[in-house]
Every structure is written in C-alpha cells, then in structure tokens.
C-alpha cells in the first residue's frame, strides 16, 4: 500500500482539514495516510504551532491502523520544527504519545520564519541558502531521534529570489553535509511532492537524491504536505517512481518502525 506520509489536519494551526475529509480523499486513491501535525515550540510569530498529544490521540486513535497491518491505512505522527537547543523539548513532546512517525523540519532560521518575505530583506540568496543548509545538517545531528527529514527544498517554495531553486551544483558541499548527517543517523529523507507538478523540479532534485544514494542513504518517505483535501495524495505516485529511479526504498513508519511501501 502506498502512503502519503506528510499530512496536516485541524490539529495543525495552519490547517482546517477534517480527518474525515483527509481519509475520504486518500481512500478514493487507495492510499494510506500519516498525519504529521505541526509542533514548532517557541515559534517567533503570532501563530501557535503546538497541540496536545493527549487530545490528538483521544481524537484519532480509534481510526489508527493496527501495528501489524499496514493495509489499515492511518498512522499518527508529528512534524517537529527543529531549532538549536530545542532537542530536549522535542524529545519530551514525543514521549507524551506513541507516535508512529516523527518528521523533522526547518521552518525557522535565526529566529525568523523563512515563510515570511520580511526574513529575506537585506539578505542575498547565497547567505540565506548556505545558512539554511548548514543549520539543517546541524539539526539532523542534534535530533537523531527523528525518523525522516522533511522537504529539503522547502525554502525553494518561499524564497523571493529570481531563481529560488535548490541548485545542487552551486551548494553541493553544504547539501552533502545534510546527506551525510542523514546517513550517519540512519534517518530517512522525505520526497516532498508539493513542487512535483513541474518536471523541472524533478530534474533539479535528482542530483540530491542520487548523491544521497551514493553516500549510503536508502530509505525515503513520500509526502504531499497537504493542508486541504484537494492536495492529499498529490503527485505521490510520481514520487514513488522517482525514488525507484534513484534506487531508493520508499517506506512509511508505523510504531516508529520503517515499513517498505508496496
């Protein structure tokens, strides 16, 4: 069974999607889901990206699949925003519920939200992207308990530069440090499908995932990062095929254990 392993419902501050809507959208495509609600402690803005694991479990546990049966297609996870000196807070949060999958992501740099255009004022692409990649590698090593690293190309969606692409050749020494950190910590790498509607994006990302494989990486998760029902499952099949072409193994997580997708 194929899983869309990055989904946000109304437990995430930036989503209003109901669980019934998410399950219905996945069901029509024959996909399983991993819910990965946002937990970004000390978020430096007006949003509160935190939730109660106890309430989350009480609301959704009856819908969760059995540990021994991946065909029962719902897992309950979390997306943890990683920042320096926050590893203990993330560990303590994760310990409060038996999460199936823990995603680590970078949304904040130097106490600024990189989603916001104000962050980029007075900063050129080289300074921002090298900082982004450097911090990401550091956070993978500081948080070796995450199961998968989310959207290495997140910044490419939001940076307001004329060319916001990932540019592996230009930044390869920094990106390779992220990939080495993933291999060292036995952490999977997500293939995030938000940008996969454009074939040029696949060509842009191919050298990164090919290098991951060369350095010893094997496992990848695939996720749409959907916040609305119409985005659930978006480009997931393309991502699985992309992983296969890179000789990588698409997996999902149930009870914090990697399970190969069929």
TL;DR?
The chain is of the alpha/beta class. 36% of the residues lie in helices and 20% in strands.
Write up this protein.
This protein is of the alpha/beta class and 262 residues long. The chain has one domain (3-260): Metal-dependent hydrolases (TIM Barrel, Alpha-Beta Barrel). 36% of the residues lie in helices and 20% in strands. It contains 8 helices and 11 strands. It has helices spanning 19-29, 53-60, 87-94, 125-142, 154-158, 168-185, 199-214, 236-245; strands spanning 3-7, 32-39, 74-81, 101-105, 108-109, 112-113, 148-149, 188-192, 219-223, 249-254, 257-260. A 9-stranded mixed β-sheet has the order 1-2-3-4-7-8-9-10-11. A hairpin with a 2-residue loop joins strand 5 and strand 6. Helix 4 packs parallel to helix 6 and helix 6 crosses helix 7 (199-214). The longest helix has 18 residues, at 125-142.
The count of helical stretches stands at 8
* Structural class estimated from helices and strands: alpha/beta
The H/E string reads EHEHEHEEEHEHHEHEHEE
Low-confidence stretches: none
Q: Describe the sheet with the most strands.
A: 9 strands, mixed
Can you give the helix content as a percent range?
A: 25-40%
Distance between the termini: 5 Å
Overall average pLDDT: 96
Number of strands: 11
Fold-level CATH name:
TIM Barrel
Query: How many distinct domains?
Result: 1
The global form is: globular
């Amino acid at each position: 069974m194929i899983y869309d392993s990055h989904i946000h419902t109304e437990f995430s501050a930036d989503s209003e999607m109901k669980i019934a809507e998410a399950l219905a959208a996945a069901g029509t495509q024959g996909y399983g889901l991993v819910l990965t609600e946002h937990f970004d402690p000390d978020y430096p803005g007006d949003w509160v990206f935190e939730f109660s694991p106890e309430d989350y479990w009480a609301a959704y546990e009856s819908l969760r699949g059995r540990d021994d049966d991946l065909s029962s297609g719902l897992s309950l996870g979390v997306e943890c925003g990683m920042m320096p000196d926050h590893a203990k807070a993330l560990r303590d949060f994760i310990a409060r519920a038996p999460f199936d999958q823990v995603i680590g992501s970078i949304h904040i740099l130097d106490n600024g939200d990189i989603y916001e255009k104000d962050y980029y004022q007075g900063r050129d692409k080289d300074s921002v992207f090298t900082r982004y990649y450097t911090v990401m590698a550091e956070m993978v090593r500081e948080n070796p308990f995450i199961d998968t690293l989310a959207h290495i190309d997140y910044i490419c969606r939001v940076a307001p530069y004329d060319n916001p692409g990932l540019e592996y050749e230009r930044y390869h020494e920094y990106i390779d440090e992220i990939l080495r950190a993933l291999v060292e910590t036995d952490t999977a790498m997500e293939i995030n499908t938000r940008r996969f509607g454009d074939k040029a994006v696949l060509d842009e990302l191919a050298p990164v995932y090919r290098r991951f494989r060369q350095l010893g990486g094997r496992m990848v998760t695939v996720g749409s990062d959907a916040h609305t029902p119409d985005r659930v499952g978006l480009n997931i099949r393309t991502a699985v095929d992309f992983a296969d072409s890179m000789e990588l193994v698409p997996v999902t997580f149930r009870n914090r254990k990697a399970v190969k997708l069929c």
